[in-house]
């Protein structure tokens, strides 16, 4: 795979009147909308893969009134972007879905679809097949464990250009709208959906964009490094070089942390004024860090909640990559 240098174009994205402007950005309107978001919304981004064979075929599907599906954006494998609905209009991408007390996420969320063939199966020739009969070489295949599945399987890789442009778009959306939640379709419809899957660095995206406004950001920035234990206050590595290695970092596994306090309360939000939620955590327990905000880490064990981040020691979990 040849890496296309999209740094420049990524940084020249802008939003005017709810429309994206920039290099390799086009607008192909979709009729599939239920009208404007209520005021204060959208506040959520949902990431998807198309499970399609090309950007144009997926855009055709989402702009045809018969199909009753749409998304705000589709991002191709060279980083090219197609907007189908302005960001102030409700699109139809989430379907039956739920997240933190909400149902039907379409009415809260911007939908971003990435051109990707999805989950693949190995054939006898050492190649990999998509559901629609596409054939992929091993260099374009990611082996990893899906968050909703018990064992590793094969996934079409995203390109670096695609990931970098997705990060740039989400960053811009966070600046223009009141975005506080970034989720995968697989998280809001776990019974039905597996997108964007383990090949997409979703936890990294969340930490980068939702956990980067306080001193906790230094910690978030360091989480992808190869050290086995990290403490707060290491030097930042917010560089282009780090951006380029996003996908590799994701392949090394999820960000995990070990509880360092004797007993650590789990709360429903990032602050001591939020109610305690479920059982406390104890020293040595391992959790997955989903995001960091205002000195608080949103962590997962069997359920999620917020704990004081200063009582966590971050570790890099060297989960299998291939
Ligand atoms: Zn989806």
TrEMBL record:
PROSITE patterns: SH3B (PS51781)
Enzyme Commission identifier(s): 3.5.1.28
Alphabetized InterPro entries for the sequence: Amidase/PGRP_sf, Amidase_domain, NAMLAA_amidase_2, SH3-like_bac-type
Keywords, in A-Z order: Cell wall biogenesis/degradation, Hydrolase
SUPFAM superfamilies: N-acetylmuramoyl-L-alanine amidase-like
Gene Ontology terms, MF aspect: N-acetylmuramoyl-L-alanine amidase activity
Pfam family membership, one: Amidase_2
Domain SH3b: 254-316
Domain of life of the organism encoding this protein: Bacteria
GO-annotated biological processes: cell wall organization; peptidoglycan catabolic process; peptidoglycan turnover
Catalytic activity: Hydrolyzes the link between N-acetylmuramoyl residues and L-amino acid residues in certain cell-wall glycopeptides
PANTHER family membership: N-ACETYLMURAMOYL-L-ALANINE AMIDASE AMID (PTHR30417)
Protein name: N-acetylmuramoyl-L-alanine amidase
Organism, scientific name: Alteromonas profundi
């Amino acid at each position: 795979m040849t890496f296309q240098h999209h740094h420049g174009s990524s940084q020249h994205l802008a939003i005017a009147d709810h429309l994206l402007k920039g290099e390799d950005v086009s607008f192909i309107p979709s009729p599939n909308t239920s009208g404007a978001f209520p005021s204060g919304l959208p506040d959520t981004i949902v990431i998807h893969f198309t499970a399609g064979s090309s950007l144009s075929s997926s855009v055709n599907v989402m702009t045809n009134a018969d199909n009753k599906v749409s998304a705000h954006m589709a991002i191709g494998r060279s980083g090219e972007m197609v907007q189908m609905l302005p960001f102030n209009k409700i699109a139809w991408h989430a379907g039956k879905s739920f997240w933190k007390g909400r149902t039907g996420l379409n009415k809260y969320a911007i939908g971003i679809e990435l051109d990707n063939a999805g989950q693949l199966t190995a054939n006898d020739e050492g190649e990999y097949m998509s559901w629609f009969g596409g054939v992929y070489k091993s260099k374009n295949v990611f082996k990893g464990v899906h968050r909703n599945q018990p064992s590793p399987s094969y996934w079409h890789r995203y390109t670096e250009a695609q990931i970098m442009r997705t990060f740039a778009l989400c960053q811009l959306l966070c600046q223009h709208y009141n975005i506080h939640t970034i989720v995968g379709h697989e998280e809001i419809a776990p019974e039905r959906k597996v997108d964007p899957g383990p090949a997409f660095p979703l936890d990294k995206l969340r930490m980068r964009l939702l956990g980067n406004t306080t001193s906790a950001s230094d910690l978030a920035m360091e989480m992808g490094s190869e050290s086995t234990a990290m403490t707060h206050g290491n030097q930042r590595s917010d560089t282009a070089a780090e951006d380029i290695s996003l996908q590799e970092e994701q392949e090394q596994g999820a960000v995990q942390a070990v509880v360092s306090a004797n007993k650590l309360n789990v709360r429903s939000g990032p602050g001591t004024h939020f109610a305690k939620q479920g059982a406390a955590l104890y020293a040595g327990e391992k959790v997955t860090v989903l995001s960091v905000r205002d000195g608080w880490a949103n962590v997962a064990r069997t359920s999620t909640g917020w704990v004081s981040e200063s009582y966590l020691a971050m570790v890099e979990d060297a989960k299998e990559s291939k």
